[in-house]
Design brief:
Layout lengths: L1 H10 L6 H11 L5 E3 H10 L6 H13 L3 E4 L10 E4 L8 E5 L6 E3 L3 H14 L7 E5 L12
Parallel strand pairs: 4-6
Antiparallel strand pairs: 1-3, 2-3, 4-5
Helix pairs in contact: 1-2, 2-3, 2-4, 3-4
Bound molecules: zinc ion.
Zinc ion binds next to loops.
Length: 149
């Protein structure tokens, strides 16, 4: 497991620092696939590893930019907070996923028109350079609660 983490960092030309290896490892061990910065911090703390929250945030950002993690926004998260999910290494780059925030089921979006439009919009807004992938928070049909509650 540890070896895979170091290989993944080197493959993405990231120096395998202790913090990067620990955070990536914590993401691999995440129950259900994704965690936010606080959950990564607590998981590492429980393992006896002490990193500041600032370090955790910075490393999550670095791993996202390197394409190892995808950012995931959920409306159930508190404002301004995002979770991270491992980028599925088996899928090609520019992967877009819809993730159900309730059951965490993932649906890959394999639609070239969607990808083209996303890149065009991102380019127009100056967001294309860092665009590696995207995880959309979409409640699946099984988890949509009936209106009459
Ligand atoms: Zn669901």
């Amino acid at each position: 497991m540890q070896t895979r983490v170091y290989e993944q960092l080197r493959d993405r030309r990231l120096r395998p620092t202790a913090a990067r290896a620990a955070v990536l490892q914590a993401m691999h061990e995440a129950d259900g696939g994704y965690r936010n910065a606080e959950q990564v911090y607590l998981a590492l703390y429980d393992s006896g590893m002490r990193f500041s929250m600032a370090s955790i945030y910075r490393v999550l950002q670095e791993l996202s930019l390197a394409g190892l993690l995808l950012r995931h926004w959920s409306k159930t998260d508190q404002a301004g907070k995002s979770s991270f999910v491992l980028a599925p290494a088996v899928l090609p780059p520019d992967v877009y996923l819809a993730i159900c925030p309730v059951c965490q089921r993932q649906m890959p979006i394999k639609d070239s028109t969607f990808a083209d439009n996303l890149h065009r919009v991102a380019q127009g807004a100056g967001f294309d350079a860092g665009l590696h992938g995207l995880a959309l928070s979409v409640t699946c049909n099984d988890c949509v609660t009936p209106q009459s509650a």
